[in-house]
Amino acid sequence: MSSETGPDENVSDENLPKEQGPAHGEVARKDDPFADPGLPPHEHRIQDVDEQAAKRSERTVAFIFTLSMLATIGFIASFVAFPIDKIIYVWPLGHIGALNLALGLTLGVALFCIGAGAVHWARTLMSDEEMVDERHAITAEPEVREKVISDFKQGAKESALGRRKLIRNTMFGAVALVPLSGVVLLRDLGPLPEDKLRHTAWKKGKLLVNENTNQPLRPEDIAVGSLTFARPEGLEHHDEDFQTEIAKAALMIVRLEPGDIKDKRELDWSHEGIVAFSKICTHVGCPVSLYEQQTHHVLCPCHQSTFDLADGARVLFGPAGHPLPQLNISVNKDGYLEAQGDFDEPVGPAFWERG
Questions:
Q1: Which positions, given as ranges, span the membrane (predicted)?
Q2: Which domain CATH number covers 272?
Q3: Is residue 317 part of a domain?
Q4: Position 185 confidence tier, pLDDT thresholds 50, 70, 90
């Protein structure tokens, strides 16, 4: 027996309709490429003539749809089964949230099975009879065709394109070069980014200035559990490039109990529990500003990406792709908080995809 979706070679000829020949009895002629070639014989699927095969296809489609239903139930159950802060290692993806992985897989399977079931249903069980529609002649009258060809030859002869090779070659050169004008116009889209996305206004020795008071910050200015926003020393609101620079350099400062900090590097880059992270969310660049004092979680108000400031600002929930970059800070001889360099990685959303 042949495959379910292919023609059935074992079906009796008396079960098949007569072969469909050329419409109106026309026969394709070698000297007329526009003659009606007719239709090839219709090949019946095995499901059209074998009810048992049709039943098998029906059960296959039902099984695929059932898988979709089970995947949808699994999607709903994932909300109960997985905590939002559970991180697992999956090769080659690395460390990812178990909840996000479960939701993505179950929803993907549910949608895929709906599509696969519909396609299998259409290909094996729905009607596949051809619908014939007579086509009108698209060729011009012989007299018109002869006149067009004659006019074209006369115009080509009068243009002397074949004889005037210098004109022909320079014309081809002009047509080939003129699109380069559009390439030059692309330069006006803006300055080249170079490596500006990899650097901010933070440098070694830059003081942390309170965004509200415009005063340099001391450790005693920041209480445990408080949230403070800062900018680099020397970056003022009246500067022409202030918006461009603050979009990369905006800083979020939180003071934790040193014993609550889980990440070793975060602890090494802090000062007496004071940690500094980029304020720019790594999803679409919204300002992260909602802080939960008891859990040390910070929330982006735009799409609810949640970061754990006690564990390297790693992503706990939401669409953000990677943790918030941390700024290494210390205290100078005058007792003010200062940066020890730039952020450890570029800030903002989707940088690695862009650069």
A1: 61-84, 96-121, 166-186
A2: 2.102.10.10
A3: yes
A4: low
